[in-house]
Amino acid sequence: MARPPLLQLSGLSLTFGGDPVFSDLDLVVHPGDRVALVGRNGSGKSTLMKVMAGLVEPDAGTRVIPPGVSVGYMEQDPEMAGFATLGDFAAATLEPGEMYRVERAAEGLKFDPARPVATASGGERRRAALARLMAEAPELMLLDEPTNHLDIQAIGWLEAELKATRAAYVLISHDRAFLRELTRATLWIDRGLVRRQEKGFVGFEAWRDAVWEEEDSQRHKLDRKIKAEARWAVEGISARRKRNQGRVRALQDLRAERAAQIKRQGAAAMALESGPKSGRKVIEAEGLAKAFDGKPIVRDFSLTVQRGDRVAFVGPNGVGKTTLLKMLLGEVAPDAGRVRLGTNLEVAVFDQARAQLSPDLSLWENLTGDAEMRVSGKADQILVRGQPKHVVGYLKEFLFDETQARAPVQALSGGEKARLLLARLMAKPSNLLVLDEPTNDLDVETLDLLQELLDGYDGTVLLVSHDRDFLDRVATLTVAMEGDGRATVYAGGWSDYQAQKREVAPEKVEKPNPSKAKLKQDAGPRRAASPGLSFTEKHRLEVLPEEIARLEAEIGKLEGLLADPELFTREPIKFNKATEALVARQEKLFEAEEEWLALAEKQEAAEG
Q1: Rounded to whole angstroms, what are the CA distances from 597 to 528, 580, 607?
Q2: Rounded CA gap, 148 and 317, in Å?
Q3: Other C-beta atoms lying within 10 Å of the C-beta of residue 598
Q4: Over the Cα atoms of the chain, what is R_g?
Q5: In what order do the strands lie in the sheet with 347-350?
Q6: What is the CATH code of the structural domain delimited by 267-346+429-502?
Q7: Across the beta sheet with 378-384, what order do the strands follow?
Q8: In this model, does residue 606 exceed pLDDT 50?
Q9: Model-level pTM?
Q10: Domain assignments of the chain as residue spans, ordered by start
Q11: Strands 34-38 and 185-190: what pairing?
C-alpha cells in the first residue's frame, strides 16, 4: 500500500509588494523524495521553502502534513537567543542522552559545540543549525543553502549523510556538484510558476532551455498572429464594421494575453575590463613560511604566477588560504622566504565577508561613496570603467530595480549582496582579480556568466572557493592546503587535483617495483608514460581536447547569437559584447590547438 505524501500544498498563492511570488500552486512531496529547488535569485525559493515549513502563511490555499510526520527546516539566519552555546541550541529538541547526535554532526561539519553563541561567527551559527536538523533526523528535511560556509571536506560529509538517509529532503543550493549527486527530482520556480520534473539537477539546464525555447517559439507565433490581425483591422474594418466586431475583440484579447506575459529576467550585464597589461610574471614566491601561535600555515612554499593564470586555493576552513593570499599580495609578511610582485599590477578584490559594503548605507551610497568611482560634481553618476554612468542605470545592469537603489544594503539577500559587490568590483579596470568565495549565494545563471567573464578576462585570477564545479570550470592551477603547513601545486581544477593526488600518492609511499611500473604502462592511454613530457605537459595533453571542444561549442553559440540580423539595432551593447567574446574565444581556440599540436608532436618524438 502506497504511503501518503509527507507534505501537500494545494491552491497556494502569495504576493509580496504587489508582485505575485506564486499563484495557484499545487505541490506534493512523497516519502523518499530528493528534490532540488532551483530558480533565479529573488524568484521566491526561500519563501516557498518557508511556506513548506509553515513559517510563512500564504494568502490563499492549504498546507497539509499528515499526523505524526516530522518536518525540519534549516534556517539561513538561526535565532539563538536564550542559548549559551552552539551545542545547547543544536540539542534543544533532543531527548536527554542524545547529545552524541550533535557531537557527531559537529565533528563532520567542523564546529565546536562548546563555542558560546555570543562569540560564534555567522558560519558557525549556520553549521550549528544544520547539525540540529541532522541530529533531529525528521522525515522531511528542508535545507536552504546548507553548503554555504562549509569547506569541501564538510560538504563531502554532508553529501554522504544525505545519500545514506531514508528521509525525504528538498534542497536549495548554488553548488552544482552537490545537487547533481543528491537529487532525483527538480522543482523550478520561475516568474510565479513552479514546474516539476522527475529528474535530478543533472537534467535541469537542458529542461530549462527547452522550456524557454518553446516559450520563445509560442511568443513569436503570438506576435505574428497579432501583427496579421492588426493589419486586417487597419485595412478592412471600415468595410466590415458590424460583421467582424468579434474578430476585433479577439485581437484585443490577443494583445491582452501578450501584455500579461511576464518577461524573463535577463542575465546581469556584467563586464570585466582588464587594465593595462601586467608584467609577464605576476607573482614569484620563494621558500615561504608562516605560522600563527605555533600553528604552521605554510612551510617552504614556492609558486610562480604568470599573467593569465587562474590559481585556485583549496583546503579546510581555517587552514590559512586567505592568509596565504595576503602573503602573495604583499599584505602579510612571511616569517621566512620572499615574494616579488610583478610590474604594473592593478588589483581588485572580492572578499567573502562583504566588508567592502556598508550595511547601513543604501546601494546608491555604497557606489557613490567610493572615491575611485565618484564623478566630481555629479551626485547621481559614477565612473564605470572610465565612463560616467547614472547610478540607477548601472544598478539595473546588475538586476536591481529603481526602488532598491535607496534601500539599505542590510535589506538585501545574500545573492543580491554578492551582485552589488561584483558591480563595485567590475566598475574598475584591473589586471589581477582576487576572488575569495565569490560563488556563495549566486544563482546558476549568474555563476555561468561569471565563469564566462573569467574565461575572457585578460588578467590573472586568484580564487578561493569550495564549489567543486566552479573550480573545475575556472582554475588552471590548484594550490591544495592540507594542514600542518603542507601546500602543493597541481595542474588544473578540483577534479584534476583529485586525480593527480591519487596517482602521485602511491609513488610517495611505495618503493620502485618494475612489475608494477609495467602494469601501470599497460593500464591504458591516459596512464601511459611519456618520458619526453613533464607531468604538467602530460596533464595538458589530456585535458586540451575537452577545452577545445568547449571553446568550439561556445563559438557556435556566439555565432548563432550574432546571426540575428536585428541584434545590433535591438541590443547594441549585447552585440558588441558578443562580438568581443567571439574574437576572444577564437583566439583561445587557436592557442589551444597550437598547444595540443606542439605537445602531441613532442610526445610522438619521445616515443619514437
Answers
A1: 18, 26, 15
A2: 12
A3: 12
A4: 27
A5: 347-350, 432-436, 460-464, 310-314, 477-483, 486-491
A6: 3.40.50.300
A7: 374-375, 378-384, 387-390
A8: yes
A9: 0.70
A10: 7-206, 207-260, 267-346+429-502, 511-608
A11: parallel
